[in-house]
Each structure stands twice: as structure tokens, then as C-alpha cells.
Amino acid sequence: MLRNCTRKPAKRLKVDTGRQKSVMSFSSHETEIYVRGENVPRNRSSVSAYLKAAAGVKNVIGPKKSQMREQSFFKELVKVEYQPVPSRTQFIENYVKEFHKKYQDQMALSHQQLESKLRLAKEQYQSLQQSLGAPPAEQAADGSDAKEDQKLIKLLRKIENEHSPKITDSPGSPNAKYVADSVRMLASQRTICFSVDVEAYERNTNVVTEIGISVFDPRESMYSTVGNFRTFHLIVGESLRLRNGRFVCDVKDCFLLGESYVMPLSSCVEFIQTLLNYYMVPHTPQERTWHRAFVGHNVKGDLKWLFSIGVNLPANIGHDTLSLDPKLERISILDTEKLYRVMYGSKGSSLGKILRLFKIPHAYLHNAGNDAYFTLKLLLHMCDVNYRRRLQMDDFYAVTATVEEWSRREKNKGSVNSHGKGNHEFTEYRSRRKQSLHTEFGGCRWFASASDALVGTPKPCEYE
Predict the structure, then answer these.
(1) Where is this region: Disordered (predicted)?
(2) Is residue 3 part of a domain?
(3) Is residue 256 part of a domain?
(4) Could you say which of 184, 375, 405, 460 has the lowest number of CB atoms within 10 Å?
(5) How does pLDDT run across 384-401, given as a tens digit for each residue?
(6) CATH no. for residue 226?
(7) Does the pLDDT of residue 267 top 90, yes or no?
């Protein structure tokens, strides 16, 4: 999705190598992306080329067909039926009760502390006014209580805004229920998660440049010690050479989980539709025993982007409530940003900050494929009961104190920056080179059609 880059706008720095002086901008992208494959089209990407392709997109697959059902592995996978585990269900419910108890106790304490702060501030303000000999506030014409002093109102509002943690919902509220139901859906290992992220061109946000898809299907991880993720990074061919970097970050060619697939926009739509129709549209009784959910960080915007390019989204998406009854065949929305805001407030709600808070290693955010994958991993960590207990994520006071400490550090010059931000502070080329990350990327490969991309994924030995 299109987000503001966390670092400051790029500066033009003077570089002195001892031989010559030159000027460099770190936000420029002069090198073209190299794309492997045969018959890679050499036509120049442009906004007009994209808009022309978007106007001509025809989704020939429809909302139900999927080429994946013709492959033997996926044909057998749909026969797997969910088997409930009573002990696990009881374990989850015990945690939900524990969560509600802690939530209620901390909410009551937070409200008590806020009222105490407001009362003390009001008393001190009135005492100061009396010591200065200020006249009492005017009485209203109808003889009611005096009108509140505007300065006092502003003071009390400031105290309310700065108070933390802000716990405003009761345990039985819709927001608290959203958190509890999210834990139930993920901890039960019953939910097929379809994570999506879309990046757009900063100079024309109607132009989609990248699409990231990451799928976690518990049917593939039933006997695995490590969760099995299927992650894809699609680069739209018509916008291949349209690069961001002036207003938002551009790491289009920094996908960490394999090769990026470069395809025409129409093929991207068919590729996504094929995945959607397989994972999110049940056909057999066994498939209907599983929950399904779209995942993202403010995911509603990404779903709107998919719809705008011609992807047929299922009509049974529950945008406001989570569905725990598979018989209803409702697709839920699991949003990591909403989960965070409900529990800890709006401060520090960026994807990178929350990944750091949950101690999840990550890199090269703002690449659509990376964002989709890390958002999905974050969701699984946020809803893992044992992981939440180990990191004490239900201690809202401790979590908000950590976030506020990070905010204070960022305002100081001596704060610890990310590697990317610290790397740009070197003005000498050789110093920057020594500090560069030793990360290898899978590169990009051209696919003329979605079918080729689905069945022709190259093996590691085929990489050039």
C-alpha cells in the first residue's frame, strides 16, 4: 500500500573521493531492473501504457475457476477436513478469560489515574487563578453553573490526550471482542489467511506498481514444525520502470523470498484471481469446515485496489465482524493495524514499529511482497497465546511505555537508527560501501501469462 516513507526527504550530499567532486541523491533510481526470461518486451513503461492496459483488462477466469485445482497436490489438499481439538479449544478459552480480566483491571486503573490527573490539574489551576486575584467566571443567564474557562478546557484536553494507556472499551465491547475472536481464529489453527499488499506510483496513485500476496494455509502445516507460507511478489509490466523514491520508499527490486514475477497487468489479475478462487472460495464439504480471512495492515484499502484493477472479490466478506461459524461461509477481515490500535492506541501503529515491538526480524518494508509476508507473520505472532504471554503483551502499561520511549529516542540526535537510515549519513563512498547490507535477492523473471507463472516456477538450480 502507499505509505509515507519513515525517513526524512533525501538530501543531496557532496561526495569527495579525493579525485573528483560530485553530487549524489540517494532517492534516485537510474539503474533499470534486470528481468530474466525469454521474449521480455522492451517497450518503455509509462503511466499512459498502464492506464491503457487497465482499461482493457478482462478477467476471463471469473469468481470460481482455479487452475490450481487441476494439480494433484492441491487437488488432494481440498479433501482435508478440520478436526477440532477439545484441549486446544479449552486452552484458548482460558486465555480469553484471562485477557478480559487483565483488560478490565487495567481499564479501571487507567480511568482512575486519568480522573485523578484531571482533578489535580483543575484544583491547581483554580488555586493559581485565586492567587492571581482573577475574578470568578461569569454565571450563565439561567442561573446554572459557571461557564468553564477555555484555558482550563484546553489543559484538561491535553492531559487526556497525553494519558496512557488509553483503554476506552469494556471487555464486552465490539473492539475487545474483535481481539478475542482474532485469537480464537488463529490459535485454533483453523483459518486460511490470505495476506495482500499493494504499492502504487507516488505521482499517480491510480497506477499500481507492485502486488504482494502471502498465504498461510494450516492444511499445509498440520505436521510441520515451521509454518508453510506461499509468498508472491508481482511487478506490473506496464509500470516496471515507474519508480518511487521522492515521496515514498522504493524497494521494488528487493524481494526477500524468491523471484519477483514480472507480468502484464492482465496476467497479474488472472494470477491473483486463481489464488483467490482456490484459497478463499470453498467448493467441497471438507473445505467448508475451515475459516477464511483476508489479512493486511489497513487491508481495506488494498482490497479496493485489487477490485479497481479487475479482480473479482468474493461477495461474502464480513468487513465489520469476524465470523466464527464456518456454516455461514463468511470471509473475515483480520487487520494488524486495527488489532494494535484497539489494544495499545494509535501511537506507534506503523507496520515496522509493531514488528519491532513483537521482536520479529524484518527488512525492506514497502516492497509489496515483503509487506504481505511480514504482515501475515505479525498477525500470527499477535494471536499466539504462548508468544503473547512470554512477551507480556497483555501488560498495556509496559507496552505503551516502550512505544513512548522509542518516540522520545527518535526526537534525540543520539537515537539508534535503522541500518538504512544510518547508512545514508555516511558522506564518503567507501564508508557507505563497508556498511552495506549483505543481502541477496532472487531478482525478477518475466512471465507472459498467469498460467506460466503458476506452473513454471523455476527451481533454485535454474537461477542465473
Answers:
(1) 1-20, 409-429
(2) no
(3) yes
(4) 460
(5) 999 999 999 999 999 999
(6) 3.30.420.10
(7) yes
Question: Please, what is the end-to-end C-alpha distance for the chain in angstroms?
Answer: 30
Residue 105 falls inside a structural domain: no
The tally of domains found in the chain comes to 1
pLDDT at site 86 = 95
Residue-range definition of the domain harbouring residue 426: 32-73+188-383+417-454
> Is a pLDDT exceeding 90 seen at residue 75?
yes
> Which residues are within 8 A (CB) of 261 and not within 5 positions of it... i.e. 6 or more apart?
232, 233, 234, 235, 271, 444, 445, 447, 453
pLDDT of residue 367: 96
Interval 42-52: pLDDT, tens: 776 789 999 99
